[in-house]
Design a protein that fits this description.
heterodimer, A: alpha+beta, D-Maltodextrin-Binding Protein, domain 2, Dipeptide-binding Protein, domain 3, 2 domains, five-stranded mixed β-sheet, 23 strands, B: about 230 residues, 15 helices, about 0% strand, globular
Chain lengths: ~600, ~230
Amino acid sequence: MKKALILAGLFLVSSLAVFGQGYDAQPADALVFPIGVAGTVYSDMELGVRGGTLNVPNIEDPRGWNNHTAHETSTTWFTNRMHRGLLNLDHISGAVVIDFAKSYEISDDGLVLTFHLREDIKWSDGTLITADDVLFTFNDVITNEDVDCNSRDGMILPDGTFPVCEKVDDYTVTFTLSTIYRPILNQLAFNLMPKHKLAEFVHKLNPDVPVGTFNETWTLDTPLTELVGNGPYLVTDYQVNVSVTMERNPYYYGYDPAGTQLPYYDKVVNHIVANQDVSMLKFRNGEVDVYGIRPEDIAVLLPESAAKGYSVMITDLANYGTTWILVNQDIGLPDGTNDEKRDLYRNVEFREALAHLLDKDTMVQNVLNGLGGPQWTGVSLPSPFYAGRDEYGGPITENDAVTFEYDPALAASKLDALGVVDADGDGWRDLPSGEPLTITINANDNTIRIAYCLIMQDDFRAVGLNANFQVVDFNTLVGDLFASTGDIILLGLTGGDEPNSGKNVYTSCGSLHAYRYSACEDPDEVDLRIDELMDLGANTFDLDEAFGYYKEYQQLLAHQLGYIYLCQPTFLYAHYDFVGNGFMASPTSTPAGNNGLLTELCFDKRL
Amino acid sequence: MKRNGLRALGLATCAVVLVSLIGFAVDVNYIVANELIEEISKAAGLALVGDYLSTDPEELEELAETGRTPGIRLAADRALFILNGREMELFEMDDDALLELAKEGDQDAANMWFFKNRSDYKVPTAIEEYLLTVEADTLAIAAGKLLGGFYVPGSPIGAKTEDELVELAKNGESLGLRVAAATALTAIWNADQPLTIDETRTEILSVTLVYPELALAYQGYLAYLFSLEL
């Protein structure tokens, strides 16, 4: 008994070494999430209670605990819960919002961003967080060439410079830009690191340590008691290939409107499993509480959901990313061939005819098992800038969607009007000159893309277009893309919230302006306007104004049909019903998502 | 369709027991120990698997083999499945080994084979075609369970109405189709809870001799109702 008491005492001391005691009362500068507050995107959520453990599946071990040297999501899954930055994505809407900054201003000229920090907020070990930590993270870690920092490139402004980060006082910092560039706000959401724990490992601050020492800091060999953060959780236990346990940070500054300090769950246990099927088995057996499902899982999960007490979320929310075909408007240009075909491909009415031959409903039903929807713009649907919204971050209404309905008869009449008719009676439409027209459709060996192509091929042929689908390896396909060879290519792009990140795709001189690279030297009016709109959208901090510019560019692109968008699978998720607020899972965040946003708002309804 | 005389006698006896139980609190342990109707007994057994997990494995082995009722044998068998880590054992087997076990009558192996190969059956028609040539009842049942997931209302493709499912459970052309309908019906009833325990037992009595898969659907639902009583 005595030994047990001694051990308990040691454990207590050990725990206090990791965590401070927490706040005596809610700090004046706490970040309050409007959970359950009418008129906010949090209105449907429930206020929770503290306690319990959230069990989540994961298929990879972390590779370290250092947020800024991590290159893999298996590590950032944890560091994104250990650290927070000045700004963040709104946990529900995904919009850029304040986080550790309680407010910020932008100077009239748009070049100076002043951030006011929350005062009297502490790191998990009880040390105050100040402007020095912001400067340390930005000046000594992120922009320090000695540090192998993954996010440094994102901080570079269009003119190649970094913002200049300076301290005004203990709770005020400024970032001075050489040029107005609103997308930098996304980058300024970088996670903060504790100077008092890490400065000694940065060579420029401590010449006694070799260059690059920081890259070897907070590795898997580091005692977990050394880790300090300002986010909702800290790693407290790691069993290789088995699990990682995170426990609440007593000094986290997030609260709910009832004054309950977040996160609600005391612990998050990340169970490391071999693959997604094992995750699913564990979910079905109740060993993990949430699961990111795939279309093929639904038939297994749905029948047992009521008896086991979990919900299968089959939503109409599209995931991030795009899938498209491009009609190569520069075909033959590099070698001076295919002049007539090129003229035809450059004719937007021809591309409109093709767009009317895309049976997106069949693609969704037969390829995505009904779990998807059509796309018409290059900005991902979850983005607050998606043009199907009426305002920045507003609900998707598709009031202004530019769509081309599946209408083979209309497509045929458009082809007729272009003179693309069967001139020689062989059953296939020819070029206006009477020369044969053959169209090759290429995609890489991807089951979904192949299925899309086969549907397209059938519909093209049904109206007399001699289309032939061929699978080519991915590298060849990308090579064709960059070399402006090939007819029609089907590929996809990842997506995010900020349209400017697609500047390399949509501006006339962009490296991925693959449907017509020649636009760089010979831009038309639409190209020029899109170039202008992309800059206008980036060069204002007024999000509504930026939304207006980005909406116009998306509509122009949709009319232009450079990239012709196909379909995107929808968001699917499953969670046990006792995971309070788990139903708010979305493409923005899930209870077990990499960004860790929704985790802190979920709770155990059984308590 | 045919049932032997002993089962019919059990049915009659149980009907008397059922009437006598109406109006009393449900004692699932009593039911599993005394119920003679197979589906009701098994429903009780399924509800009690969690309780059986604390039983000594050797005793469970014996109960699974020689337990007095089908419900006891099923509860013990399912508890052993969990305690022995049989699921992961099956998961780690290759497809051929699973198929071999399935053809020898191992339903768990058949279920696991379908779980691991479900990506090949993304649409209900693919499973319906498979059922036309399936070689073993275990595989037909496993396929039927997966197909049932497509038939459930709310499924993006293949959903059927309750009436359609009842008809299919009664008169579906193959075992797999009837199991599929039964699986979906259980899911619907679990969500809607349209019948009480007593009503469900009565329904089982009315169909067990004629429509075994429909009785199976009620069995699954009754197991859920019993679990709510624990």
